[in-house]
Write a structure and sequence with these properties.
This protein is of the alpha/beta class and about 350 residues long. The chain has 2 domains: about 70 residues, no CATH class; about 240 residues, TIM Barrel, CATH 3.20.20.220. It is about 55% helix and about 15% strand. The chain is built from 15 helices and 8 strands. An 8-stranded parallel barrel has the order 1-2-3-4-5-6-7-8, surrounded by 7 helices. The longest helix is centred in the N-terminal third of the chain and has 21 residues. The two termini are about 15 Å apart. The structure holds dihydroflavine-adenine dinucleotide.
């Protein structure tokens, strides 16, 4: 890392304040603050200039370069895991940056093909032009899918804030049904009230879907404020997309969670319904619950690890802290290590 070392002091004060908030007011307060910080430019500037922050972020991120990502993917493949690679970046505001991101991802697709690793690619539409021009975004996405198709590879459109769900699903439909890309997949978030309806349509269309709980700060008008409802929704949507009807239509489900209860609910359902283990996959993030990733592979299930890489790691990293504010202890303890 070439960033300048900055003082440890403001970090420590900020982190300790967050820990106090966590223990005084509960995790949901700390989560809200962290989700705010994940979007705050001043916090991003502070953190990304610090080698200390990178040292902790490195637990969740494969590295800065395509070669780092390929090496990590090779290590995971050797353990029997599939991979999806994510070139970090989001909320791009200049067309030149969106085109630059597209070119890096094209390079990534070439490198995956060249090295023969078992890896698909995940992209964020806000990285390739969603907030600049929808036509630019569509062209960039089509160029990526074209390249992936040439190499028999697949691309999944990550899901971002609730305000972008319609744009994302509309683009998915355009790419798949108007442009004929069968190698495109989407993501559904179980915290959104609208998701059962979206899933019903995706089942009728035989889509490739990653189901996750949802990682953004959403108002109670659009998303369940209570985790219990998000979890119940997750189980219900898992069963909908693993149903006989869904599988016959061609639905392929990625059950994306580190929650043992969600994983067990999926295992119970597929065991009960005698659904073969190649009809779906579990998906987890790089650096989180490696023990469970390995245990599932040992039990004969397919596991795909989402591996992010690149220099734009700040918002991704802070969302990971927000999911588990206890990670702040890990952050602080690492600051003391040499
Ligand atoms: P939950 O948050 O309830 O955590 C359950 C347990 O998992 C915790 O008790 C802890 O043990 C462990 N855990 C979870 N998060 C952790 C963390 N950060 N650090 C350490 N341990 C942790 N979201 C989104 O909005 N759009 C998207 O496109 C995606 N894509 C995506 C891909 C993949 C492969 C995964 C696994 C997740 C996503 N997500 C996502 C993120 C998702 O919405 C969600 O925020 C996280 O997965 C955390 O939720 P869990 O299901 O793990 O459960």
């Amino acid at each position: 890392m070439t960033q300048k070392r900055i003082s440890l002091f403001p970090f420590l004060i900020g982190l300790l304040a967050l820990l106090v908030v966590t223990y005084q007011y509960g995790e949901s307060w700390a989560r809200s603050i962290l989700l705010y910080l994940s979007q705050a430019q001043w916090a991003k500037n502070l953190a990304t200039r610090s080698p200390l922050a990178w040292r902790v972020a490195g637990r969740f991120i494969a590295g800065e370069t395509i070669n780092d990502a390929i090496t990590t993917a090779q290590q995971l493949n050797a353990k029997g895991m599939h991979v999806t690679l994510d070139y970090l970046g989001e909320h791009v505001s200049k067309a030149s940056e969106a085109v630059e991101a597209r070119d890096r991802i094209l390079e990534l697709l070439e490198k995956i093909h060249e090295t023969g690793i078992d890896a698909t690619v995940s992209i964020k539409l806000s990285q390739i032009g969603m907030h600049i021009d929808h036509e630019l975004m569509r062209q960039n996405a089509a160029a990526l899918l074209q390249c992936a198709q040439k190499y028999n590879n697949r691309i999944r459109l990550d899901m971002e804030e609730s305000s972008t769900v319609d744009t994302t699903l509309d683009l998915y439909h355009t790419l798949r049904f108007q442009q004929g890309f069968e190698n495109v997949g989407v993501v559904i978030q179980s915290y959104l009230y609208r998701s059962p309806e979206d899933v019903q349509r995706l089942i009728e269309e035989g889509a490739s879907v990653r189901l996750c709980k949802g990682a953004y700060k959403e108002p109670p008008e659009v998303a369940y404020p209570d985790k219990a409802d998000t979890d119940a929704g997750f189980v219900k949507l898992t069963q909908m997309m693993l149903s006989e009807e869904a599988r016959q239509n061609g639905v392929y489900l990625g059950v994306a969670t580190h929650d043992e209860k969600m994983v067990q609910a999926a295992v119970d359902y597929v065991t009960d319904q005698q659904i073969p283990s190649n009809a779906f996959e579990f998906q987890m993030l790089f650096g989180i619950r490696r023990d469970m990733q390995e245990a599932l592979v040992d039990q004969g299930y397919q596991v795909r690890v989402y591996v992010p890489f690149g220099t734009a790691w700040y918002p991704y990293f802070v969302r990971r802290l927000a999911e588990r504010p206890a990670n702040l202890w890990f952050f602080i303890s690492n600051l003391w290590r040499r």
